[in-house]
Amino acid sequence: MEAVYKVPFAVLEVPNLKLKKPGWLKKPSPMFIYALVLVSYFLVTGGIIYDVIVEPPSIGSTTDERGNSKPVAFMPYRVNGQYIMEGLASSFLFTLGGLGFVILDQTNSPSTPKLNRILLFSFGFVAILLSFFMCRVFMRMKLPGYLQG
Questions:
Q1: Is the pLDDT of residue 130 over 90?
Q2: CB contact set of 146 (below 8 Å; sequence gap of 6+)
Q3: What is the DSSP string of 98-127?
C-alpha cells in the first residue's frame, strides 16, 4: 500500500512552504462546536435537503364537507413526503429528545448538588418521554391506524 502512496511523489516534488497560522484565528470553544452540530442535526432531521430539492409548500390545505379550505400541517398517507412545517416540528422533537439525553448525561457530574441533580434528571426524562410520545402522535396523524393492534 505504501508503494501506491509513493508513486505521485516520485514524479512530483512537495514544495517547502513555511505556513503560519494567522494570529486572529482561534480554536473554537467546545460549546460553539456543540451548537454547530446541534443546529446541523436540527436541519438535517428536519429534511432541509428534501425541502430544497422538492420545494414543498410550508403547509397544505384540505377541503371539508362544506367546501371550506382548512390548513393541514401533516401530509397524510405519505411517509416519504412532508410539508416544511411538519419537518420542522418533527425535527424539534428529535432535537428535544437528544437534548434530554445530554441533560441526563450531565446529572452524573460529581460537583452537581442533589437538588440540581434531581431537577436535571426529571427535566431530561420528561424531554425524552415528551419527544417519544409526540413523535408517535405525529406518526398517527400522518398514518391513521399506525400501530393500532
A1: yes
A2: 139, 140
A3: HHHHHHHHHTT-TTS-HHHHHHHHHHHHHH
- Nearest-angstrom CA–CA distance, 57 and 54: 9
Nearest to 96 by CA among 58, 125, 127: 127
Q: Of 72, 96, 86, nearest to 138 (Cα)?
A: 86
Q: Cα 23 to chain center, whole Å?
A: 34
Cell of residue 147, nine digits: 400501530
Beta strands in 1-129, from DSSP E residues, in sequence order: 60-63, 69-72
pTM above 0.85, yes or no: no
Q: Which positions ≥6 away from 24 have C-beta within 8 Å?
A: none
- Residue 72 sits at φ, ψ, to 5 deg, of -130, 130
Size (the chain), residues? 149
